[in-house]
């Protein structure tokens, strides 16, 4: 398998080089040169596999011979052996028509662990095998940072710098990042929003000379390994329900701000997974919902919400979807991205909008609705949702019918967002790993939201 850029100036890149490149050198995002197909017979054969065994099978479709099978199996086992649940991403039945896939059983209690435990181990493997210097640079709206840091802290040959928006993540998210005291970890709290952090990251990676000089590697979902790892749990959820004799059309409802998590579902669907409907759930930062429902992609005014990990106006994975929406026409994608940069929006024609509506449904959840859903499901089903998962459930409730079965992705443990839970007058007990954070000292540096301010800190650190 080789990889190419959505903008057409980079192609023929091997798997390991694609992981190391992160953002393509032409400013685009890397995608597989072809999408491997999974047959109904293969899906049936996969039903008895454990999560780690399934992950190995899926990864092997994209890795080919660059990583020996035995090494890949060990990478996968090391990555998911850290999870607290034997199923890694268990599927919980709430109603006959609604299941919750819990993606928060990893070290930092967030779905990002599923991809970043693997990517952290993969970077360590590549560093050992090739003697490469690995300097990881990433931005987070809350969960990516802690998961990425946990994946590589203390590992020889790797240094990591994470940007997060100062005072715009939950307290637990902040503590999970900033209480880490390892010499290879730098936390930068940026005066600005997550979109500012993400812009800085993309522009620094787009400076190819700087990127190569300091050996910068991407940990954000611009890195194709993140997407590939996330496709696995879509397959796993389907296979778990198929084993239980699922009837009805299968939907996935996905809380998303950066389009990465739901794009992984879209990729799984294109590989052959029989998904009926991909439901895009967002909050009041509803750029993606407006795109699906109106055909206009235009960043709006930033709003702070009870689901801060989705407080995003510029979705970094959106370009990958445009690539497929426009029939893999890289010239058109490059033109659209230039248009977005120049005019601040993209408007797609009616035929493309029809195609989008055939693939996605979308719902934006306001703050009051988010809290109402948390309260309702706690009272009626004795199930405590975090505010992001609550957005996914709200979207599912509003966009599905009785003959459909929906799996809502639960992206984080509710303990990470007690600010919202407390507003519902629900008292929860923190897991001991999270409770312990509050007594630890923090390590972070506050910087201005400019490329220059961040660049200066990186030069000192790397």
UniProtKB/TrEMBL annotation:
Protein name (record): Threonine synthase
Described purpose of this protein according to its UniProt entry: Catalyzes the gamma-elimination of phosphate from L-phosphohomoserine and the beta-addition of water to produce L-threonine.
Pathway, per record: Amino-acid biosynthesis
Domain Threonine synthase N-terminal, chain residue ranges per copy: 2-80
PROSITE patterns named among the record's database cross-references: DEHYDRATASE_SER_THR
Keyword Plastid recorded: no
Cofactor(s) needed: pyridoxal 5'-phosphate
NCBIfam families: thrC
Keywords annotated in UniProt: Amino-acid biosynthesis, Lyase, Pyridoxal phosphate
Catalytic reaction equation(s): O-phospho-L-homoserine + H2O = L-threonine + phosphate
Species of origin: Paenibacillus motobuensis
Similarity remark: Belongs to the threonine synthase family.
Translocase listed as a keyword: no
Its EC number(s): 4.2.3.1
């Amino acid at each position: 398998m080789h990889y190419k850029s959505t903008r057409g100036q980079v192609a023929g890149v091997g798997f390991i080089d694609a992981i190391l490149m992160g953002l393509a050198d032409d400013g685009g995002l890397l995608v597989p040169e072809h999408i491997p197909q999974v047959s109904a017979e293969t899906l049936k054969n996969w039903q008895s596999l454990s999560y780690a065994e399934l992950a190995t099978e899926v990864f092997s479709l994209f890795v080919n011979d660059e990583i020996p099978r035995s090494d890949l199996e060990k990478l996968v086992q090391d990555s998911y052996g850290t999870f607290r649940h034997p199923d890694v991403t268990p599927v919980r039945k709430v109603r006959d028509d609604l299941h919750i896939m819990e993606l928060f059983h990893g070290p930092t209690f967030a779905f990002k662990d599923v991809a970043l435990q693997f990517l952290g181990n993969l970077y360590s493997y590549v560093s050992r095998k090739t003697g490469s210097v690995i300097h990881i640079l990433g931005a987070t709206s809350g969960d990516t940072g802690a998961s990425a840091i946990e994946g590589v802290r203390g590992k020889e040959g790797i240094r990591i710098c994470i940007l997060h928006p100062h005072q715009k993540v939950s307290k637990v998210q902040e503590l999970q990042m900033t209480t880490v005291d390892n010499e290879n970890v730098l936390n930068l709290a940026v005066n600005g929003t997550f979109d500012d952090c993400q812009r800085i990251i993309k522009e620094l990676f787009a400076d190819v000379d700087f990127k190569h000089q300091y050996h910068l590697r991407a940990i954000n979902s611009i890195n194709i390994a993140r997407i590939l790892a996330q496709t696995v749990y879509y397959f796993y959820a389907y296979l778990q329900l198929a084993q239980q004799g699922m009837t009805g059309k299968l939907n996935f409802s996905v809380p998303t701000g950066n389009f990465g998590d739901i794009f992984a579902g879209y990729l799984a669907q294109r590989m052959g997974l029989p998904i009926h409907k991909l439901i895009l759930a967002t909050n009041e930062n509803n750029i993606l919902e407006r795109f699906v429902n109106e055909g206009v992609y235009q960043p709006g005014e930033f709003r702070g919400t009870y689901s801060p990990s989705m407080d995003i106006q510029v979705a970094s994975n959106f370009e990958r979807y445009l690539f497929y929406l426009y029939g893999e026409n890289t010239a058109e994608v490059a033109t659209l991205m230039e248009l977005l940069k120049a005019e601040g929006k993209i408007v797609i024609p009616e035929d493309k909008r029809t195609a989008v509506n055939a693939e996605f449904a979308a719902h934006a959840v306001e703050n009051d609705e988010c809290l109402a859903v948390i309260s309702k499901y706690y009272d009626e089903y004795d199930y405590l949702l975090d505010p992001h998962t609550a957005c996914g459930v709200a979207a599912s409730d509003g966009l599905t019918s009785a003959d459909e079965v929906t799996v809502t992705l639960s992206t984080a443990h509710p303990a990470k967002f007690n600010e919202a839970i407390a507003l519902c007058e629900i008292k929860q007990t923190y897991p001991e790993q999270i409770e312990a954070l509050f007594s630890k000292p923090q390590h972070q540096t506050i910087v201005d939201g400019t490329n220059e301010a961040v660049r200066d800190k990186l030069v000192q650190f790397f």
